[in-house]
Amino acid sequence: MLPVRHGDGAQDLNALLRVGARDVIVDLSHPVSLARELDFHRAQPQHFGAPAATSQPYRTPGFSGSVATGASCNCEVISVIPHCNGTHTESAGHLTREPLDAERVVPSGLLPALLLSVVPVAASDVSETSDLAAQTAFAPQALIIRSARAPTLPYLSRDAAQAIVQHGIEHLVVDLPSLDREHDEGRLTAHRVFFGLAPGDSSLQQVRRPAATVTELALIPESLTDGPCLLELQIPAWRGDAVPSRPLLYALLEPAVGLPQTGQPESRRDRRNCGAIGGNPGGIGGIAEQSAGSGASPKRSLAHRSVAQAERRQMGLAETVLRG
Fold first, then answer.
1. More confident position, 195 or 147
2. What is the pTM of this model?
3. Which of 155, 165, 183, 282 is most buried per CB count within 10 Å?
């Protein structure tokens, strides 16, 4: 077998970037993909009753579409529903009569981002608030939410979505199939709050946040450390309100502010998946948990994981949850 390289970029490629008023050192050599691998011939994500994504040879008279069956080359026909079959990025066009292609909305290049881990707890067990003092080393434009495993599918609460909007988050990445409950009678509450579309409205002209994007069903490795990082949303040049996507997370290196001292050995520098670079406490939480079955579900929220509380305090993240 020929060795095939996958994942890493150029070796030892670090950059000093200005993010807002702060300088950060970014590891461009080892981006972490947050996309789920979609295998057309094995188990794969299937949500909302959608069929599996498929891939089969393109056959015409005299051409089988597969080298294994005698064709000169492989040529496949792929069928996929982006909203249901894998990691995808969507625009407010998901909710409007008029089209808004995700390709027109997804920004090019790197975005200042914050990775935050949350875990489901009963809303009645916590005193939730949306009074946040979110001042990390830079103001994030993107928020990556990693949810702990739960017996039923979580979803974003209304207050959580509102707080995320209030903190200027334009691009939201979650490891959930949807921001909303799987069966919510078409309300799509969190989607509407995040995109700025009132209940019952369906015109693109009524959308208050047309530049916002939502990326769902991401795969966020447990090895990543909560905190500031940079995010790149990679999508194909497809038309549609939702398209398959590959979010890439880029680490910040320590020391996070300023260049390393001359002659400082590489081994003495702290390589982190998401580097902390100070700032005052601040954080975002509040996700609700989907109950099994149809529409009825108990309201729950996601608080921060207690196992990481001490580390997040060190990184300047608050242990705040929002009302579910």
1. 195
2. 0.76
3. 155
Asked if 8 and 30 count as a contact pair (C-beta separation under 8 A), the reply is yes
DSSP helix/strand/coil, 111:
strand
> How far, in whole angstroms, is CA 119 from its chain's centroid?
16
Residue whose C-alpha is closest to residue 113's, from 146, 76, 87: 146
Give me the pLDDT at residue 22, please.
Answer: 85
Rounded to an integer, what distance in angstroms lies between the CA atom of residue 183 and that of residue 228? 33
* Coil, strand or helix at 120: strand
**φ, ψ at 82 (rounded to 5°):** -55, -40
Q: Kindly state the tokens that stand for 310.
A: 């001490």
CATH number for the domain running over 14-36+87-315: 3.50.30
What amino acid occupies position 71? Answer: A
State both tokens at 296: 């009825």
pLDDT digits 0-9 by tens, 197-246 = 999 999 999 999 999 999 999 999 999 999 999 999 999 999 999 999 99
With b meaning 16 or more CB within 10 Å and e meaning fewer, what string describes 173-201?
bbbbbbbbbbebeeebbbbbbbbebeeee
